[in-house]
Amino acid sequence: MMNYLSVTQPYNWSMVHAFLTRRAIAGIEECGEYHYARYFDETDFYAVSGLSHVSNEGLTSSWFCATYEPEAQRFAVQLSLQNEACREAVLANIARVLDAQQDPNTIAQALTKAGFTPEHMTSGLRLPATWSPFEALIRAIVGQQISVNGAVKILNQWIGSLREEANGYRHFPSATEIACCDTSKLPMPKARQATLNLAAEAVQAKPLHDSQTIQDLLKIKGIGPWTVNYVLMRGISHPDIFLDNDLVVKNQLARFALTPELAKPWRSYVCIQLWEHANT
Fold it and tell me: The pTM is what?
């Protein structure tokens, strides 16, 4: 059965597509001209779907492919699940990742209040996200002080090797897998290698369900405000995160006469707009 997600207009698919394509992990994610597909662990959605009592023994990776249909103003979503009861929760997360249903007028008004003029505002600006807060956390730690391309290269090599050992699983590794993973050969400082394991252990004990559990990550050595705010922004799509300690944001702020505080509660989109200017 085909599923459909309505998309508010205007919708800047090109910027969403660019974000997802640049960060795609081979074997887990795949991007085409008008689609985004990935494998995922559907058991992450069992609790919210009232299925916490259901055994996950014998389950394999689930999959979806969301194809943007601009004329119909929607995504057509092919979805392969093993338990149909979590369908709505999975579709809601796909819509979140694609930021398909944000009100563009609300965002435009917030950017205007912050000080952007119309010629400096991206039409259909969206906040593309990461599949889960845990995945956002691992991506953020791996990406500390290196380029996006450098981080994706490490993730491709590391995650690819983990998946080869995982009996057919093709989704992003769980906290349990990474907690016991040997990170000593990853091309990064030893302190960062240790942070990956410590972060996974913390999430294994307390899953990242909300802003407070994400804020608690600050207790872990090697995790600071930038990493936590990135997880809030990309991992749960928090709309009001302003990364004022981000180097690109700082550099772009020097170009514009902005007061980001005036964009509350939509400051995440101020960051996104500044990053868009840096990319063009």
Answer: 0.95
